[in-house]
Amino acid sequence: MEQGARDELISWLAEAIRSITTVHPLRVAIDGPPAAGKTMLADELAVVLRAQDRDVIRATIDDFLFPRAQRCRRGQYSAEGCYFDAHDHSALCRVLLDPVGPGGDRRFQHAVYDGDTDIPSSPPAPRTHRPAGRLGVARGLRVVMALAPMRLCGCRGRGRAPVAGRCRVPAGCGRRR
């Protein structure tokens, strides 16, 4: 993808996100296959949103891993292990998505596990986002996450996380050549 087209895509996504108003922080997930450019797209989108004076929590599913022994119990290169055993979806919902979602107290953690050291993250005191104030409701917090293909199930027992809008980006748009 040419840089001009990529910039247009990121601007379009930022405008789409900006146009959504909620009484709680907006949660944005970027999903796609490995090496599709999810992390790069999420990083670039977060920069644009911050430049528009938006508060952004930039989180990644890879900060919600299970310990290596649990992730690799089906084998280090097991596709099933990678899909079913790698990420702690319950912790993701409990400490990040639910607290910033409807009815949440805005006290969140953006990580629970350090995959490089294979130890739980020493959680700082949970961070708090003010639900009102300088940002107001229409300009509230955005949580931008790059996700591996996964299912976000069970957050507060509501099944799949609600989707305010979807955008299909052609394969390869996230990659820089």
TrEMBL record:
Gene Ontology molecular function: kinase activity
InterPro entries, per database record:
P-loop_NTPase (IPR027417)
Which keywords does the record carry? Answer: Kinase, Transferase
Q: What is this protein called?
A: Uridine kinase
